[in-house]
Amino acid sequence: GELSGIPLAMLHGRLDAAEKEKVMADFLERRAMVLVSTSVVEVGVDVPNATVICIEGAERFGLAQLHQFRGRVGRGEVDSRCFLLPSSAAPEALERLRAVAEAADGFALAEKDLAMRGPGDLLGTAQSGFPPLRLASLLDSGLIKLARQTAETLLADDPELRSRPELRQLMPIPEEQVHLE
């Protein structure tokens, strides 16, 4: 076939930690030029010289997961490509994959995902257990961006929320991060 003679490595969930480390070391150090993997490759894989990822049956994965997969390539200085190969031509599947292709970052992709699925299916079950919002819609991306920027500014100025005990109570800070004077 096309990959005949090219050193391959395989990564999957049944390998123990030592075997996974060896496979990744082989790929990182170019003893293996192609890595064939299950979705276990989603996180923790940092191979700067990886330039191409092909995701078969891409429509089966969530948009956030596809974004994580895409992030496994393009970490070095060489141009990279992510190929989304659907196993279904269903219009809604292709629309979701188009959203991944068009979104530059995870936040923009999350907005598209929310707009496409709606807030009722955010947790994977239509309307089930989703808390009603009193002040905003999850589809109000401008308000969400403003809230995020405000939270980031507040935490940058006061990481332990000492000046805002009412917020600190809502967002408990792990004890190891609290510095008592």
Short description:
The chain is built from six helices and four strands; from the N terminus they run E-H-E-E-H-E-H-H-H-H.
Write the layout of secondary structure elements.
Elements: E1 8-11, H1 17-28, E2 34-37, E3 52-56, H2 63-70, E4 81-85, H3 91-102, H4 106-117, H5 141-157, H6 165-170
Parallel strand pairs: 1-2, 3-4
Question: Can you walk through the features of this model?
Answer:
This protein is an alpha/beta fold and 181 residues long. The chain contains 6 helices and 4 strands, in the order E-H-E-E-H-E-H-H-H-H. The protein has helices spanning 17-28, 63-70, 91-102, 106-117, 141-157, 165-170; strands at 8-11, 34-37, 52-56, 81-85. Helix 1 (17-28) links the parallel strand 1 (8-11) and strand 2 (34-37). Helix 3 (91-102) packs antiparallel against helix 4.
